[in-house]
Amino acid sequence: MKTIFDMHVGETGTISDMKAIDLKKRHRFMDLGIAPNAKLVLLKKINFNNLYIIEVDDVEICIRQADAKNILVQI
Amino acid sequence: MRYLLIGNPNVGKSSVFNLLTNSYAHVGNYGGITVESKLGKFIHGEIIDLPGTYSVCPNSEDEGIVTYSLINEKYDGLIDIVDSTHLKRNLHLTIQLLELGVPTFIVANMTDELEYSGRKLDISKLSNYLKSPVIPISAKTKSGIEDLKSRLSKVVSSEALQLYYGNIIELAINKIMPIIDKLHLNPRFVAIQLLEGNTELFKNLEKGKQDEVKKIMSDTETEVIKSGTALSVKGAIFNTRREFIDKVVKESLLVTSNKNHKKLLNHKIDRIVTHPFFGLIIFLLVMFSIYFLTFDFLGTILSDYIDVFLTDYFSPFLKSLLLNMGLSETGIFMSLILDGIVAGVGGVVVFIPQMTILFLILAVIEGTGYMARVAIMLDTLLSKFGLNGKSIVPLVTGIGCNVPAIMATRTIADKKERNLTILITPFMSCSARIPVYALLASIFFEKHQALVIISMYVIGTIVALLAAKLLSLSIFKDKANNFILEIPPYRIPAFKNVYRHTKMMVKDFIEKAGKFILLGTVVLWFLQYLGPNGSNVNPEESFLALIGNFFAPLFIPLGFGSWEASSSLVVGFLAKELIYSNMIVIYGGESAISGVFNPVSAYSFMVFSLLYLPCLATVGTIHQETKSTKFTLITLLFTFTVAYIVTLIIYNIGNLLF
To answer: Between B231, B234, B486, which is nearest A61 by CB?
Structure first.
């Protein structure tokens, strides 16, 4: 299984699972559209790969590497 | 008519509010900048501008206000502002509002940007799906605003939107609906919100009903997880809404061109602005230009003009006027007005140009969307100090004034992380501290004034970061460490928004100067005019000296153990500008100050003034925001202790070196 962390820049994927993230934070992500079945594109990795910029529903969102490792994706 | 204005963060909600109402609202191109609701009047009634939110169901303090207003405010309808370029995300909130069944105008903003990005909205299709009027506008080009205004003259009653959430959840909705019949909101809406975990609505239930609802919620949660349809009830509800939205958007958003110019340009700029090296250089350049424009160049020149006007023209004019009115030259009123009020308030008025420029620049930067990039760029660095990138907004705003800075922390969702940021924000040198820096720097560091003043900002920032580190390793050890940020596209800030924001901040400052500082200087003057042995006493025998002498021994190790200095700090707690006013009033001018301080003690006095205590207004805001007297007292004790230790170190090092 791949996570956002494993994706390479420009790749598109569909979120399959994010159980590894605690519920409260998961709901925060959900508000921004980051939820299972959502399509995403990894736009770039910045700050020496500490931050991941993804695009979900036409919105660019910045997340941390630790969270990127916890979001499973289907390529 | 009375409307609630609701929408996602950063959709131009406050811009629309400004266009509709002709009154002030703080507007910025950074998520969550409207930190409290504002009321504005327009031709057909009133509009209440609520903070931006992704969902009716609150995730942070800021978002709780929307549910609170839906329950407690009186309103005839809702105005839901959506960003038409981010329709999919925005409609999640719209659906929740439509489930409420209150007349709702859906305002599709940024249609100009949508066209520029090669897409177009089919308004009638969208309106049909949502069963509510949709009005396309652009707050930037002002198109559609007149249409919107006239449509708002009357509300059209609308039926609640009803989505089918699947067997398990529909069953739970039907179980909850009869329980909550006493709330005046649409029961189906309330039931869905409760299932999503809306704590604000839950609080409004009676105790017994809370337990009943809680039972249904946890049963439903278990069933949803067992069925495998979603990870939680909220997730299942979200999925249903997303399916509906996908269908709506697919039908009503038409692609006219495949090239998205805006996006390409944004990415090009971001490649440089968030670059680990060039990005940092740009940030430092921006910060440096702010200081240069404010303190070294434009601001100082304008301030000098005001100073010349006050001392050479206004004061003599007022004096002759008062003499003509029959006041004696050596009398009490003459002294009160000229030495007390004019000197004290005037000294602060001189700094209005500098503050105006500072607030103006901050408003422009806020409006461009650059702040979000700074947050991203500095996140990794700030996370090393136990903060996150979002803390940069309060910290930079704190340079203007600590009060809005403390309020800006509302966008930080985790409570402990937010409290940590609140605790260190007062170390950021606000504009009210400029007068005392400028005074002492001009006397003792004539050749290096700008450098000395900049060093105050550097010390404040370093102390804030180190304090954050210290706290995150100790009392805030178990706080969450989150960072998730929507990146807004770059925008050219609207002149009107920048103008209104700056005007509001400067007006606040002048009002404060008018009330607090005027009152403060009058009280001060009396405290130094009166003493235990009567009136017109020697300054050393005045009440002010009495107060100052009481605290003075405490400050001897820091190099300024005189009653004059310590009484300045005492009154400075009311408003930091008063430190300056007090010194001018009791020392009676700059030359006297040069006799009692030396460069080292003057510098340590500046450092102490920077760090020692947040002003009364800030303390009030901290209390109001945290709703904790204990936390507020801890903040006072903490900042004072840190100030004392840091100043002690600086004073002793200074004495060793010079």
So the answer is: B486
ipTM score of complex: 0.93
pLDDT of residue B151: 93
Helix (H, G, I), strand (E, B) or coil at A51: strand
Nearest CB to A62; choose among B87, B232, B376: B376
Gap from B190 CA to chain A (nearest CA, Å): 19
Measured between alpha carbons, how far is B448 from B484 in angstroms, rounded to an integer?
A: 42
Phi first, then psi, for residue B315 (nearest 5°) are: -60, -55
Residues of chain B with CATH 3.40.50.300: 2-151
- Rounded to a whole number, what is the distance in Å from the CA of A28 to chain B's nearest CA? 7
| SS3 sequence of B380-424 | HHHHCCCCCHHHHHHHHHHHHCHHHHHHHHHHCCCHHHHHHHHHH
pLDDT along chain B (658 residues), means of 10: 91 88 60 62 87 84 79 91 93 96 95 89 94 93 92 86 94 92 86 92 89 94 91 92 94 82 81 87 88 77 85 89 84 81 76 81 86 89 89 86 81 83 94 90 91 94 95 83 85 83 78 71 83 83 90 94 90 85 81 87 96 87 84 95 97 92
Superfamily covering domain A2-74: Ferrous iron transport protein A (FeoA) (2.30.30.90)
pLDDT at B31: 52
Single out the residue of B199, B203, B186, B204 nearest to residue B104, CA to CA. Answer: B186
Contacts of A70 in chain B (CB under 8 A): none
- Cβ–Cβ gap A58/B377 under 8 Å: no
CATH class of B167-255: mainly alpha
Cα gap A42→A61, rounded to integer Å: 10
Are B605 and B592 spatial neighbours (Cβ–Cβ below 8 Å)? no
